[in-house]
Structures are given as structure tokens and as C-alpha cells.
Amino acid sequence: MNREAILAALRDADNQAALFREADQVRRAHCGDKAQLRGVVHFSNHCCRNDLYCGLYKDNAEAKRFRMTGDQIVQTALSIAQAGLRTVVLQSGEDYHYTCAMLCSVIERILSQAEVAITLSLGERPRNELRAFKDAGAGRYLMKHETMNPELYSRMRPGLRLEDRLGTIDYLREIGFQVGVGNIVGLPGQTLEDLCEDIAFFQSFQPDMINIGPFIPHHQTPLRDERPGDMDLMLRVFALTRIVTRNTHLAAANTVATLSPEQGQYQAFVHGGANVIMPNCNPFLKSRNDKIEYEFQITTRKRYVSIEEAKRVLKRAKRTLDQGRGDSLKMQGGRS
Ligand code: SF4
Could you tell me the maximum CA-CA distance found in the chain, to the nearest angstrom? Predict the structure, then answer.
């Protein structure tokens, strides 16, 4: 698809039903009716970055922070495996409390005890560390590019440059990771042309997985008074992404459920071509009375999506649960 066609489809809210039908056809032809559940261990909400859109940003003095120990991370990962999920996502803020050696040990301990694939979502660690994580056995890395507009990127992420992020994303692919990228729909100041560039990037890079989420204003950030991302526009971004990437794993992020609790992830599946959900699996999140759960919720404002809730979304969308590891379909089908 060229940029003119992408932009025209982004603008054309009146005919989005036809776009959604096409995305669903492409999803069925290239991904089938099976869907992936990937269990997320959100093991730390400390972060050294100051991204304006995120409640975890370093200077947020109101945030109540937590960290899990290495043992807790491993135990949580094993409980995910016991629940029948074959991918464990280790996610945190960019938190250098965890050394490279600590994280490699966690990866190795999980892999020695469970037949799972490990996805890392740890931010931009130094390249020698990224390579060490790969050597320790982690096969996948999720690093959202956030936006392809370099000015908007640096405005939202003070002190950081898009070209550095993209360089790290290229490096992840170079050293053999299955690579996930993703954007935020509805960032203050973002234009349709910016979203068009995101989709053009998905088309040219052909990532192994993509995580698209709406902008959600967090009450503890400088963007607290901004409007959230628009649901229909976000679904058009999903649909176009499915059409241009064909068989990329496309996640209905939990922020989609935050934007629209009853409908969001379901619509991402049936209209946007999504085929992945990543439920929260922190043990601390199982009890509403648990202090750490509460702190996590008020800090991220992400909706808690349990494994059971994720399965309900799949059932409603008439998808069956893929029992496999959920490796990249690009590994079998190429990147065209
Ligand atoms: S988006 Fe990630 S890197 Fe940025 S402040 Fe939040 S947790 Fe940190």
C-alpha cells in the first residue's frame, strides 16, 4: 500500500466497515483462527526515563514503586507455564537495579524449568546486555518505537531521539531476536500523517509482532488534561497494520481495554485483525486487597486483564487458543 492509500483509509471513517472486513479476511488467510495468550510479569515499575505519557516516569513523585525479586519473577513465570501459556513476557520500566547478570540468571532459570518462549520488554538496555539476554535464551524483544515523527518522539520522550530507538530495533533483529515494535495512537500533537508513517514503517520493517495502544492521559503526568486516543481511529490503524503486515502477530494491548473496557480488545480482534492478548499475571494482582496491586494500578492506570478475561475475549471473537509457543509467523512465511 502506498502512503496516499494509507492516509486516505485513515481519513475515511465513513467506510471503515469495509476496511475492517478486509483486515479480518487478511487475518484469517494469514494467521488463521487461533490466537495467542502471552502471560506478562510486570516485575518493576521503577524507570529512569521521563516519558510525558507514562505514569511510571522517573520524576513522578506520587508513584508508589515496587520491584519483584528474581525468585518472585521466576515463580510467576512458572505459574504462567502451569496455566498452559507458552510465552512469558518479562516487562518493566527501564530499571537498572536489575543488572545484566541478574536478568540473564532469571531467563536461564525459567527456561531450565519450563517449556516457554521468553519475550523481553525492558527498554533500551546497552547492546552488550541485549546480546547477553539473547545468549541466555530469550528469543523475543518488544521495543515500541512509539511514533515515527522524530520531533514528536523527542517532545514526548525528553532527551531521547527516534533514530537511536530505531538503531536499537535494527540491532535486535541483527542479533536474532524476534522483534516487536508498536506505536501510540492519539498522542497530543500527533497527525494522521504521523500515523501513516507508523503504518509505512510496519510495512517496510515487517516486524514479528506489533503492539498498538491508544494514548491514555494519566492523572500524574503533564498530559493529564489531554484527550485520550480515538477508538475508531485506533481500529483503523489496527486494520491497516494487519493488511500491510499480513502475518505479523498483532496484540490487542491492555490499554485498548482501558480505553473501552467491554468492547476494546474484542473489537481489535474482530475489526482490527488482532491475534494476541497479553494478560497480566503478577501474583500480587490476584487480590484486590493486595497493596502492591493497588499501587501498580494507580501508577499505570492500565486495566487489569486476567487470563480468564483474555480467554473470554477470544471466545467471544470465535478464536481458539493456540497451544504452541507462538513464534513469529514470519519465520515460516517470510517478510513480504
Ligand atoms: S514508557 Fe517505559 S521507558 Fe517510558 S517512562 Fe514509561 S516505563 Fe519508562
Answer: 53
Ligand 1 pocket test, pick from 45, 46, 49, 299 with the greatest ligand atom count within 8 Å of Cβ, gives 49
Q: Supply the pTM of this predicted model.
A: 0.94
Q: For 281-324, how does the pLDDT look when each residue is reduced to its tens digit (9 = 90+)? A: 887 545 555 555 555 555 565 567 889 889 999 999 999 999 88
Give a three-class secondary structure readout of 20-36: HHHHHHHHHHHHCCEEE
Alpha-carbon distance of 234 to 271, in angstroms, equals 11
Q: Are 259 and 234 in contact (CB under 8 A)?
A: yes
For each of the domains in the chain, give its residue range(s) and CATH number, in order of start: 3-319 (3.20.20.70)
Taking the C-alpha atoms of residue 265 and residue 276, their distance in angstroms, rounded to an integer, is 10
Q: Which of 276, 280, 257, 253 is nearest to 183 (CA)?
A: 253
Tell whether ligand 1 has an atom less than 6 A from the beta carbon of residue 47. Answer: yes
- What H or E segment, with its residue span, contains residue 249? strand 249-252
What atom of ligand 1 comes closest to residue 45's alpha carbon?
A: 7
In whole angstroms, give the CA distance from residue 102 to residue 154.
31
